[in-house]
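Lab notebook, bench 4. Still working through the backlog of constructs that have no structural model yet. Next entry is a single chain of 209 residues. Request: give me the structure tokens for it.
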Amino acid sequence: LFLMKRTSAEIIGKIESAKDDENDVESEEKALAKERTEYLLSIYPTIWKALFSLKNITLAINFVLIVFRFTFFLSQLGSQLNHLFPNDATTVNELQNIVSVFISIGLFVSIIVGIYIDFLHRKRYRNIALTSKDRTVESWSKDIDRSFIIPFLVCDLMSLLASSLVNIPNKYLYYVIFILYSTCKCINNALLSAFLSSSFPKKYLGTLF
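Model written out:
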């Protein structure tokens, strides 16, 4: 009985210790988030500083190019399909009708991408709280900004890949193109809002967005 009580006490002690450690990490994360907010305000004291920053201009150009490519693809889809399948009206009609289905499905992809970005963002803060306490806020803030590079590259590569396939007269390949463009559009929108809210003061979010 004594051993059972002792074991129970040790287990309870470990659980309470783990809770304390978790609370300490959460407190550290909140402190880091506040420190980053103050740092961003020091870099962008006015909306004009943020609006005309190299970071925002690069983001805007990348976003507009992808949106333009997607819009141009949809506007030219009918004539493109008639050119590729001149004697196959059935395939042309089928592809024109099904593209709206892929765009609709893309709305669910946006939700998934948004959840994933939030998860990565929280994980990044958790890692910084655990391993980077002695680093300057400027140093680890750059790491947070750099974490968006790979998702942006993936989005750009998807758009380029889809653009390189549009001249191939293959019906099933066009399904792949629809998936690429729809997913790329969703990722692009999610990354825009995520990057703006993460890398600029939140009070400027409405104007920048």
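Notes after review: The two ends are 64 Å apart (CA to CA). The longest helix spans residues 89-131. Flag for follow-up if needed.
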